[in-house]
Specification:
This protein has helices spanning 53-60, 83-93, 109-114, 124-137, 153-165, 183-200, 211-214, and strands spanning 7-18, 27-38, 42-46, 68-73, 76-77, 94-97, 171-175, 203-207, 219-224, 227-230. It is of the alpha/beta class. It binds adenosine-5'-triphosphate and magnesium ion.
């Protein structure tokens, strides 16, 4: 298994609360959370509903801001980035997969997986080759002209993984990627993620309720009382 000791992400004493301090609505979700991810790591995050898993993933994915703490990604302090810098950074470095695939119903499969490449027009040919290579790898190249509605749930979810990989991100964040899949598709998704981790060295951070998927990762954490604990 690919393993490196080059640090990719470091979170230090991250805090995140919702609501107004002092009022009943106030809720501390992340409470001084520290976490380190090396290149090529594969990590599962478990934890009960409401423990803050999606909040944490959104912070790592720069879709949400922490209230406090430091966030270093590839030796850069992300907390100092402007919104515009964050958009470019996110598009280049981070792939997302969610519980539901969010493919655009009116676009065919190939168009859907090419969407993240539209922000940067350069290297179109190479990106198309990359799409072909990835779609071939997941057995979907022959379905490239189909609309999402003409594909199975498992096929759509694998296409969502291809879309997340199209810009060669250094980390793939997945929030319940198999939550809507049956067990044979959970297996296929686990195989695909592990293959990407092995072949491309992409770091995986998965939030999952599936013990089966979690057991394929190098490290398993539980999010409890606002912090991560090794399982
Ligand atoms: N925008 C928001 N405003 C107020 N509270 C929020 C907001 N987003 C999340 N929360 C609260 O923060 C807590 C953590 O939510 P989060 O979605 O991170 O949990 P989770 O661990 O992903 O849960 P699940 O397993 O159900 O997806 C929850 O109690 C939720 O109600
Ligand atoms: Mg969640």
């Amino acid at each position: 298994m690919y393993k490196s000791c080059v640090m990719l992400i470091q979170l230090d004493e991250i805090t995140k609360s919702y609501g107004v301090p002092g009022e009943a609505s106030h809720q501390v979700v992340l409470n001084g959370l520290s976490f380190r991810v090396n290149e090529g790591d594969s990590i599962a995050i478990l934890g009960p509903s409401g423990s803050g898993k999606s909040t944490l993933l959104n912070i790592i994915g720069t879709l949400d801001h922490p209230d406090g703490g430091d966030f270093i990604f590839k030796e850069k302090n992300i907390t100092e980035f402007s919104e515009k810098e964050l958009d470019r950074f996110r598009n280049r470095e981070i792939g997302f997969v969610f519980q539901f695939h969010h493919l655009l119903p009116q676009c065919n499969l190939l168009e859907n997986v090419m969407i993240p490449t539209m922000m940067d027009k350069s290297g179109k040919k190479e990106k198309l080759r990359n799409a072909e290579e990835l779609l071939n790898r997941v057995g979907l190249w022959e379905h490239r002209d189909k609309l999402p509605g003409q594909l199975s749930g498992g096929e759509c979810q694998r296409a969502a993984v291809v879309r997340s990989m199209i810009n060669h991100p250094s980390v793939l964040l997945a929030d319940e990627p198999t939550g809507a899949l049956d067990s044979s598709n959970v297996d296929k998704m686990a195989d695909l993620l592990m293959k990407l981790n092995r072949d491309s060295g992409i770091a995986l951070i998965l939030v999952t309720h599936s013990r089966e998927l979690a057991s394929r990762m190098n490290t398993i954490y539980e999010l409890k009382e606002g912090k991560l604990h090794t399982k």
